[in-house]
UniProtKB/TrEMBL annotation, chain A:
Gene3D superfamilies: MetI-like. This is ABC transporter permease. The chain crosses the membrane at residues 12-31, 100-121, 133-160, 172-198, 243-270, 290-314. It is a multi-pass membrane protein. It is found in: Cell membrane. CDD domains: TM_PBP2 (cd06261). Residues 94-311 form the ABC transmembrane type-1 domain. Belongs to the binding-protein-dependent transport system permease family. Its main location: membrane.
Automatic annotation (TrEMBL), chain B:
PROSITE patterns: ABC_TRANSPORTER_1, ABC_TRANSPORTER_2. Its main location: membrane. The keyword Membrane applies. CDD domains: ABC_NikE_OppD_transporters. GO terms for molecular function: ATP binding. It comes from the Bacteria. Belongs to the ABC transporter superfamily. Residues 4-254 form the ABC transporter domain. It is found in: Cell inner membrane. This is ABC transporter ATP-binding protein. The keyword Nucleotide-binding applies. It comes from Tabrizicola soli. It is a peripheral membrane protein.
Length: 327, 322
């Protein structure tokens, strides 16, 4: 287990170095930063001075090394748009995205797993069949369309829920949370529904497919032949085997949720990192874009490693064990 | 009292292309502690007979005729919850493949303890002690330690021993062992059969032992039932049937012992193949392959005649060929 962990950490470091390289190259390809930092009519000497001060005259690999060293400390320089530290900007926006993604992820699991089980165990029942149909729609409708429909129905027609923003937030240290005010919670509902819908239908269909598969296995047949109760067969013997692959997909999709949050944040003017990123793109604010890229990749890497570890905990066959059975 | 009595049992599958009978008119009886061997080619209906007895026939199949009695009580028409209580408790089952019969994510102990506690109202600790005891009885070394390990940590032969422990741990009166060694390494097959025989003697459990291996039948069973194309064609005490088979199909089977190693699905001594359920001829299903076929065989199906102990379904035994 320890060897596995060490191997994964080393792999992750390489992945992050590659991502940092892409982020670093972004600066190169987005034009010469010196141009935007000196006056129009600056002399060649002045330009060279700035170049030297920024270290841009040094070999590329050295610049990359410095970029990595600073990024590792969370230092991505100043935003080109408003000259504030990029790390501060991201820290301000991070809680909004984190809470949105968290609620969406929890919703997709808490609803997706039971609904998947229901449709697997009672495939012919009316609720199961309508759920299958709805999930088909959910999986094929573009998310921004569902977002706009949600706004139309619940904000415009019914006027129950706000159509934009986070509502009231409470600051706890540097973290601003919408969990402790009614307005904050209400503001979370529509965006998190929009964000979770695709994931929810995916999990539901996956749980259903896996469950049906597991219910056909010999060990379930043997469990029935031993007279175990249906409850135990479904929720102890089958579910545990069903959830192992579901965990992987869920973990991978969690990264997808962060990426998809860009769309949701745009539709609901949600003040998160995704909205910040879209702004940065439209202003050509490279430091913010680079930092977003690195941060999101880091989150991906952390999630994937966690999923692999969890997998090993859930599936005894993957655990490293000393004693193997003899004949 | 007769432990198990199956009368005129027919299992039908209702498919799109009509109804086919997987087994037809199967009757057999089993006394307490008796070991009944069951032989026949693949597709003859051996597994289906076992599945019917433990009430595990899956739709679209169902019992369409006949009855099954366990210790005098009808069990073929019980509600699901009642038959569930019988499975494991009064009738155990052992399937072919020990590698896939155990749940990979639960320890051997968890599976044993759950099975014991489902049927016997025992506190956890007592059930655990009983589980360890069963592992010891089926020959698992160091059961106190092995009980908390997972199936993948056992070899194939050891897993089949665990499966046997699982089938017997709630002390059923009857166990249906459906080709319990077919999937095993040849070197451990004999050990597993010997274990089964020994446990049957110790516990007094009756066994229906399905196997392709006439050698195993000869050594293990008290009586043997021969199935062909969904029907029982001959039943009798092992020694008698082996010495003087009365159905030509049984004779063909006998010609295949003794043999070592994997057995071919199609018997080399008998030309042709067993008809599929939907293509059975109107007369005796074996007639097209039978070397002794005569006038009535192709038109008229021979009934199983004799006593529950010794009977045969063949025109040769009731009429003399002209
Ligand atoms: N789901 C099913 N639908 C239709 N026929 C089936 C089904 N399962 C089994 N059968 C038929 O039942 C017959 C008996 O099968 P089985 O009991 O498995 O044979 P055996 O165990 O003797 O090899 C076979 O002819 C098979 O084609
Ligand atoms: Mg079979």
């Amino acid at each position: 287990m320890l060897g596995f962990l060490v191997r994964r950490v080393i792999q992750s470091v390489f992945v992050m170095l590659a991502v940092a390289l892409i982020a670093f190259l972004m600066f190169r390809f987005m034009g010469d930063p010196v141009n935007s930092m000196v006056a129009e009519n600056a002399s060649t000497e002045e330009r060279a001075a700035v170049r030297e001060r920024l270290g841009l005259d040094q070999p590329l690999w050295l610049q990359y090394g410095r970029f990595v060293a600073r990024a590792a400390q969370g230092d991505f320089g100043l935003s080109w748009r408003n000259a504030r530290p990029v790390s501060t900007l991201l820290a301000e926006r991070f809680p909004a995205t984190a809470e949105l993604v968290l609620v969406a992820a929890v919703l997709s699991l808490v609803l997706g797993i039971p609904l998947g089980i229901l449709t697997a165990l009672r495939p012919r029942s009316f609720p199961a069949q309508s759920l299958q149909l709805i999930s088909l729609i959910g999986i094929s409708l573009p998310t921004f369309v569902t977002g706009i429909l949600l706004i139309l129905v619940f904000s415009v027609w019914l006027g129950w829920l706000p159509s934009f923003g986070r509502g009231d937030v409470v600051d706890i240290g540097w973290w601003s949370t919408g969990f402790f005010t009614l307005a904050g919670l209400k503001a979370l509902i529509l965006p998190s529904i929009m964000l979770c819908l695709f994931q929810l239908t995916l999990i539901m269909r996956l749980v259903r497919a896996e469950m049906l598969e597991v219910l056909r296995t010999d060990y379930i047949k043997f469990a029935r032949a031993r007279g175990l109760s249906n409850r135990s067969i479904h929720f102890r013997h089958a579910l545990k085997n069903t959830l192992i692959p579901v965990i992987t997909i869920f973990g991978l999709q969690l990264g997808g949720l962060i990426a998809f949050a860009i769309v949701t944040e745009t539709v609901f003017q949600w003040p998160g990192m995704g909205a910040l990123f879209i702004q940065a793109v439209s202003f050509g604010d490279v430091p913010v874009m680079a930092a977003y890229l690195v941060l999101v990749s880091l989150i991906f890497v952390i999630i994937n490693t966690t999923v692999d570890l969890l997998y090993a905990v859930l599936d005894p066959r993957l655990r490293v064990d000393g004693a193997r059975g003899a004949h | 009292m007769t432990l198990l009595s199956v009368k005129n049992l027919t299992v039908a599958f209702f498919g799109r292309s009509g109804t086919v009978n997987a087994i037809e008119d199967v009757s057999l009886e089993l006394e307490p502690g008796e070991i009944l061997g069951m032989v026949g080619e693949s597709g003859a209906g051996k597994s289906m007979t076992g599945a019917a007895i433990i009430g595990l026939i899956e739709p679209p199949g169902r019992i369409s005729a006949g009855e099954i009695r366990l210790e005098g009580e009808r069990i073929d028409n019980l509600p699901p919850e009642a038959i569930r209580r019988i499975r494991g408790r009064r009738i155990g089952a052992i399937f072919q493949d020990p590698l896939t019969s155990l749940n990979p994510v639960l320890t051997v102990g968890e599976q044993l303890i759950e099975t014991i506690r489902t049927h016997l109202k025992l506190p956890r600790e007592a059930a655990r002690a009983r589980a360890i005891d069963w592992l010891r009885r089926v020959g698992i070394p160091a059961p106190e330690a092995r009980i908390d390990t997972y199936p993948h940590q056992y070899s194939g032969g050891m897993r089949q021993r665990v499966v046997i422990a699982l089938a017997l741990c709630a002390e059923p009166r009857l166990v249906i062992a459906d080709e319990p060694t077919t999937a095993l390494d040849v070197s451990v097959q004999a050990q597993v059969i010997a274990l089964l025989r020994q446990l049957a003697r110790e516990t007094g459990v009756a066994v229906i032992l399905v196997t392709h291996d006439m050698g195993v039948i000869a050594e293990t069973a008290d009586r043997v039932a021969v199935m062909y194309a969904g029907r029982i064609v001959e039943v009798g005490p092992v020694a008698e049937v082996l010495r003087a088979p009365r159905h030509p199909y049984t004779s063909g089977l006998m010609a295949s012992i003794p043999r070592i190693g994997p057995r071919p699905e199609v018997l080399p001594q008998i030309e042709g193949a067993m008809p599929r359920p939907h293509a059975r001829p109107p007369g005796c299903a074996f007639a097209p392959r039978c070397p002794h076929r005569f006038v009535p065989c192709t038109d008229e199906r021979p009934e199983l005649t004799g006593t529950p102990v010794r009977s045969v379904a063949c025109h040769l035994t009731t009429e003399v060929p002209a």
